[in-house]
Design goal:
Elements lengths: L5 H9 L5 H25 L4 H8 L3 H8 L7 H10 L17
Helix pairs in contact: 3-4, 3-5
């Protein structure tokens, strides 16, 4: 039986890094991880979705959608959520090669 790595499996099923399908998958995965971290922080802080929503100024339903990765959320709202959860957020920007054609 031949075994393959997770990276090889992703390359085979989603395409190589940099292809549209693979990039979309990687983006969705990052958003899903972010949503899960928010949910875990909220639970650690012993807050309900409704309480977090009140702290941020949004409805409980928006917190639920965000935690379940089923709704859109602005960066501003994300920053408010992390502020309410007393969590520091950092963003990393990776530049790619750029040519004007």
């Amino acid at each position: 039986m031949k075994t393959i790595t997770l990276s090889e499996l992703k390359d085979k099923t989603l395409g190589k890094v940099g292809t549209p399908k693979r990039d979309k998958y990687e983006q969705e995965l990052r958003v899903e991880i972010l949503a899960e971290q928010i949910k875990q922080l909220r639970i650690e802080r012993k807050l309900t979705q409704e309480q977090l929503g009140e702290l941020v100024g949004v409805q409980r339903a928006q917190i639920s959608k965000m935690e379940n990765n089923t709704g859109n959320v602005t960066i501003s709202t994300l920053m408010k959520i992390f502020g309410a959860l007393k969590a520091k957020v950092t963003f990393e920007i990776e530049k790619e090669e750029f040519e004007i054609v």
